[in-house]
Amino acid sequence: MLRINHRLLNMASVREQVTRAASSFFEKPLNFVDGVRVDASQPTHSFVVEEPATGKQLCKCPSSGQEDVNKAVQSAREAFKSWSQLSGLDRGRLLQKAALKLRERQEEFARMESVDQGKPLWESRFDIETVIDGLEYFAGLAPSITGDHLPLQGGSFGIVKREPLGVCVGIGPWNYPVQMAGWKSAPALACGNTMVYKPSQFTPITTVMLAELYIEVGIPKGVFNVVQGEGETGRFLTCHPGVDKVSFTGSVPTGKKVMADCALGIKHVTLELGGKSPLLIFADADMENAVKGAMMANFLTQGEVCCNGTRVFVERSIKDEFVEKLVSKTKGMKIGDPTKDGTMMGAVISKEHKEKVLNYVQGAKKQGAKVLCGGDSFKPDDPALSGGYYMTPCILDQVEDHMTVAKEEIFGPVLSLFTFDTEEEAVRRANDSEFGLAAGVFTK
């Protein structure tokens, strides 16, 4: 099991310390089945895992094949027999132990999450906190899961009994690796289900750490399994006859495929997909608060958040003041090593994704949008980070509703500004999107 010796932090930089820990972590296989880390027995191929902050290869990971998925599902089905028979109180106690253990190891998980994903350390710490919250919440909820007794005519009665579904599959995104693993597994396990989880191929580390932690606190083997792989591995899971429910977080195109696969097997399915969320800022808003809100809604996790408020509608009378403050604060953001305290924005997930985001900015300029700041590649001063995937946070003005950047999900640090005159206009334009997911309003 991965451990960081915090006494060594005085003798080595955080980056050196975490790099050593990551190297040690990859000495073992990344699949976790039946309580132990195991090699993929019949991988379809291998893929490279890189550290976004440096661009360096962390490992080559086998992509799990059908046989590997079969073993994970079988382990979960076997564990379901006993796990589902435990009382909610007993399951809740184990989840509470997991929350306490994760709090003890919060810094360790956070540092590895920043290596894995590229987000700043302060964000990773908060992400771990939300996993702890989720575990504690569902630990408390587990004992209270009850059914209903329904009196009927003539002395008859009906009983509604709540029962676990069976084996749940979680397929997670690369922007919130451990948070999604925790948020998907906590309710599933609290209700007596078992799980097979596939993290994104870009971020395989912390899900395995969570699986090991579950075993450490006494959650039985097979209750939570991890298989690594790319899209084909995901399809082996969504089409598997031994799976009863699929929870997927990711893109709309992939979500459509997941839903279609689940329909063939009549599986329960939950999807959280893309967004192009509006943020409405009215003239009576607290200006400082609104500026901070707009920055958080666009530059958190390098803008790689599905519910980000990427379409910022500002009432005309305050537009100039708002833009001046927004640009000033955005230019002051510290970009660089995500493992260092003080970094406000880290590295995007990959070279390909960085190029995709930068191409959106160039396309917006060609369509008539004006770049107020950012939208360029960025190279930190530290030579160790020279191969990382950094860009400057971008603010686009004079964006029109029909432009590509106004219609499509960019999933990067790009904020688009719009101007409105009336509430009715703002609401109408805010709702003129194929996406849903979220919205924000700043007003008194």
UniProtKB/TrEMBL annotation:
SUPFAM superfamilies: ALDH-like (SSF53720)
Record GO terms (molecular function): oxidoreductase activity, acting on the aldehyde or oxo group of donors, NAD or NADP as acceptor
Pfam families named among the record's database cross-references: Aldedh
Alphabetized UniProt keyword annotations: Oxidoreductase
Domain Aldehyde dehydrogenase intervals: 45-444
Assigned protein family: Belongs to the aldehyde dehydrogenase family.
InterPro entries: Ald_DH/histidinol_DH (IPR016161), Ald_DH_C (IPR016163), Ald_DH_CS_CYS (IPR016160), Ald_DH_CS_GLU (IPR029510), Ald_DH_N (IPR016162), Aldehyde_DH_dom (IPR015590)
Originating organism: Stichopus japonicus (Sea cucumber)
Protein name (database record): Putative aldehyde dehydrogenase family 9 member A1-A-like
Active-site residue numbers: E272
Spans through the membrane: none
Species classification: Eukaryota, Metazoa, Echinodermata, Eleutherozoa, Echinozoa
